[in-house]
Amino acid sequence: MGTRRSSHTVSTLANGYVLVAGGRNDSISLNSAQLYNPSTGKWTITGSMSVIRHIHTASTLANGLVLVAGGQSGIGSYLNSAELYNPSTGTWTATRSMSIARAWHIASTLANGKVLVSGGVGTGSVNLDSAELY
């Protein structure tokens, strides 16, 4: 992979590549992302997210973009921000933020194309019972 990381996300793209985004390298949160090509077994660097984040979620959308939401940017620093990765350009674009900052949550892509984000841990290390749609 080139960069040691934990608490990152892994997403399969429509072109067969695998996107690995964010996470932590020891005590440092990351905004970097890499692509894995299963055909060649090679890793390449792609655009970095605008926000460092770990313990976030990543959801592949019907249009091929990848939605990354929430997480932490450091210990106890919860995020409500979200970004979209465009595999065609290798770039990230900020998108609408969640109403609640959360990490350790679940995100599921629904049949109607929306993403359901639920639960997790929020500011003050409080367990959340809320959900929202992207």
From TrEMBL:
Species assigned in the record: Adineta steineri
Alphabetical list of PANTHER family matching this protein: KELCH REPEAT SUPERFAMILY PROTEIN, OS02G0202900 PROTEIN
Gene3D superfamilies referenced in this protein's UniProt entry, alphabetically: Galactose oxidase/kelch, beta-propeller
Keywords: Kelch repeat, Repeat
InterPro entries tied to this protein: Gal_Oxidase_central_sf (IPR037293), Kelch-typ_b-propeller (IPR015915), Kelch_1 (IPR006652)
Protein name as catalogued: Uncharacterized protein
